[in-house]
């Protein structure tokens, strides 16, 4: 009788072990299937986001191309043109719907698209600090004035100049562009491709945020567009120009954009000389920003483009995936 009970107990224990193993295997398979579904959904969402943002970029390029056609005879870029109007955040289903009825229901994806086109030449191009054996004194004063206007820490201008000069050494005599030897590449600082990467030079995030509305780092030297530049950049660009002088120019161009740099002379002190290589009324470089918001996440794409005649070329592209605080 005791042996029979032992056999029954062993059988029950074996059955429980088998049930436990089957449950564990089933749970593992369910988990793997769940992860596979989640991975596939994430890949699909990533692909869809990429295509949507690429479409927004192509749309912005088309706008700039049409603007170039309209300004073919007299290139003038200002803030009253269609490219400068940002795209307010709108539900993506409103673009995809076939009619108003489809757009009004809740069957569309909870995705929202927004974007803008910014004139990169409305900022002071730090590339003006490079290229020669010495930093031009005027360009150094421009950067120092901008740093003072944004209340950057003392010595910020010197940090930027020294860092950029080390990363982009001056070309040898007769050379057309800076060249770096293998040892320079290994021991010297990395060459920043944009303003965000100036943190490599030792600038903190707060200082970069203060400078971002006013400076930019483009692939080649460019003049500042007086039709789109903020007053801080205009005041810093020339010796003897105050913020009040720059503000008068900014207010005047709202009603009538500058047709050439000579038009700006009426709002600046008579001693100011506007060199063609330092100021202009048209632009070739633009920054296109597209934002796609889906639930609690936002994917932002920033593209630097150059307009070469009627051709719009993408030079750089950066994507930032952000988690939105609720």
Automatic annotation (TrEMBL):
**SUPFAM superfamilies per the UniProt record, alphabetical:** Pili subunits (SSF54523)
Task: Specify the T2SS protein K second SAM-like domain's residue ranges.
Answer: 224-270
Query: Which residues are the signal sequence here?
Result: none
The yes or no answer to whether the keyword Transport is present is yes
List locations, semicolon-separated.
Answer: Cell inner membrane
Q: Taking the first listed entry, what is the main subcellular location of this protein, grouped into a coarse class?
A: membrane
Q: Where are the transmembrane segments?
A: 12-31
Q: Which UniProt keywords apply?
A: Cell inner membrane, Cell membrane, Membrane, Transmembrane, Transmembrane helix, Transport
- InterPro entries the UniProt entry points to: GspK (IPR005628), Pilin-like (IPR045584), T2SSK_SAM-like_2nd (IPR049179)
The family database entries (NCBIfam families) matched by this protein are listed as:
T2SS_GspK
User: Which family is this sequence assigned to?
Assistant: Belongs to the GSP K family.
Q: What is the official name of this protein in its record? A: Type II secretion system protein K
Q: Which organism is it from?
A: Pelomonas aquatica
């Amino acid at each position: 009788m005791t042996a029979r009970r032992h056999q029954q107990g062993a059988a029950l224990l074996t059955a429980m072990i088998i049930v436990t193993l089957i449950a564990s295997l089933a749970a593992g398979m369910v988990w793997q299937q769940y992860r596979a579904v989640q991975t596939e959904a994430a890949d699909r969402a990533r692909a869809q986001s990429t295509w949507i943002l690429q479409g927004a970029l192509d749309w912005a390029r088309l706008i700039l191309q049409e603007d170039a056609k309209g300004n073919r005879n007299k290139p003038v870029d200002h803030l009253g043109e269609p490219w400068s109007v940002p795209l307010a955040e709108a539900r993506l289903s409103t673009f995809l719907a076939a009619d108003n009825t489809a757009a009004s229901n809740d069957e569309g994806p909870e995705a929202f698209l927004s974007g803008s086109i910014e004139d990169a030449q409305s900022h002071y191009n730090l590339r003006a600090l490079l290229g020669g054996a010495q930093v031009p004194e005027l360009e150094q004063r421009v950067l120092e004035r901008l740093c003072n206007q944004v209340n950057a820490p003392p010595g910020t201008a010197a940090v930027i100049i020294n860092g950029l000069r080390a990363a982009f050494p001056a070309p040898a005599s007769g050379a057309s562009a800076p060249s770096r030897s293998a040892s320079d590449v290994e021991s010297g600082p990395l060459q920043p491709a944009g303003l965000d990467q100036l943190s490599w030079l030792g600038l903190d995030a707060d200082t970069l945020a203060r400078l971002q509305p006013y400076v930019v780092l483009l692939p080649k030297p460019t003049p500042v567009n007086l039709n789109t530049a903020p007053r801080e950049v205009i005041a810093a660009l020339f010796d003897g120009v105050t913020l009040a002088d720059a503000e008068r120019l900014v207010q005047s161009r709202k009603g009538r954009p500058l047709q050439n740099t000579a038009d700006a002379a009426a709002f600046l002190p008579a001693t100011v000389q506007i060199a063609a290589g330092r100021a202009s009324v048209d632009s070739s470089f633009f920054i296109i920003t597209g934002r796609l918001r889906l639930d609690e996440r936002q994917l932002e794409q920033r593209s630097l483009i150059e307009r070469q005649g009627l051709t719009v070329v993408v030079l750089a592209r950066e994507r930032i995936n952000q988690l939105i605080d609720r």
